[in-house]
Write a structure and sequence with these properties.
2 copies of one chain form a homodimer.
Chain A: H1 3-12, H2 17-24, E1 28-32, E2 37-39, E3 47-53, E4 56-61, E5 67-73, E6 78-79, H3 82-87, E7 94-97, E8 101-107, H4 108-117, H5 121-142, H6 147-157, H7 161-164, H8 167-174, H9 178-189
Helix pairs in contact in A: 8-9
């Protein structure tokens, strides 16, 4: 299992070496190819993923069959369809690697066991969900901005990130057409 | 302190009677008048609120001085500016009671102490934030719907709630003008 995850947990909760190894045994590491899908919309969602390297996206197909990206996960972010994972239900989203990536995965049953055996991890996951909740609240606020303001704020908040994502997917996340995003970029480059 | 909170905690974590009373001592109960503001945008956010009766809303003033409502909290929901609360920073939002309400409040320092003293509550708050995160993710997905679809889905998901909120505030939450909401309602009543 990735050292990245153990280091990340240690930032929130102090683990001694023995416990760290026991915790590590609950997880498996997956190496993903760029564009590989690790959760398919409509299939049972039974895994929680932690990105140790690379980038994932969460998306769904709308009524018109167009992919709508609603979230990204970079290094040290967790990702799943949280609602489906909790209920072991069918996922409303797909998850795909946007780059060659490495993720650490745990099944719902193992996650439940892990938290029972190491309740000190509740503090870690409480803070993870707190952060995820705060980020999505901020995202909701951003929807009230004009499209151009939203683009600038997103670009300034995650400057390196915009270069890493295919333009079509970035446009979908921002709620733009690819043509509109391309116009915005040209306009800003020429400034 | 409100029995509603203790009952709610007990749904997630089993507390024995002695502990329940010690936990209760960390909270204070506030009775709020309709329209009373308990957190002002720009002031330091030092409290986390649990609604035991009534309804709160979270909102901010946009560039044009218009109030934008981005979240509601009904009975058994928690509310604060989570980011500002964690940093003890200035709030980006105001919180107001929409009805005569009763809330249970805890300061940031007391909350930190509470979790240190009763780490079993980490599991409770982990699930609270998990739920809040799942709800805001669903909210983000709803933004992709047409305005009319969004209204119907919201109305069908929270049938009693729509009657409780002033129309102007509901319109702001849905991202509509009050005139558009009024038209939609008339159109649906006449069906």
């Amino acid at each position: 299992m990735s050292e990245v995850l153990l280091n990340h947990i240690n930032r929130y909760v102090e683990l001694d070496e023995g416990i760290a190894q026991e915790i590590a045994a609950f997880f498996s590491t997956l190496k993903l190819q760029k564009r590989q899908v690790i959760l398919e919309e409509g299939s049972v969602c039974n895994q929680l993923f932690f990105v140790s390297k690379g980038c994932l996206r969460l998306y769904y197909l709308d009524d018109k069959g167009v992919e709508q990206t609603i979230q990204f996960a970079l290094e040290t972010w967790w990702m799943t369809d949280i609602d489906a994972f909790n209920k072991k239900g069918k996922s409303s989203y797909s998850i795909q690697a946007l780059e060659n990536s490495e993720v650490v995965a745990i099944s719902k049953d193992d996650w439940t066991l892990l938290l029972e055996k190491f309740p000190e991890l509740e503090k870690y996951f409480r803070q993870i969900y707190e952060r995820a909740y705060a980020a999505s609240l901020f995202r909701i606020k951003l929807f009230r901005l004009s499209k151009e303001e939203f683009y600038h704020l997103f670009r300034d908040s995650y400057p390196g990130f915009i270069q890493r994502i295919p333009q079509k997917i970035l446009a979908s996340f921002l709620g733009f057409t690819p043509e509109y995003l391309s116009e915005l970029r040209k306009k800003n480059e020429s400034k």
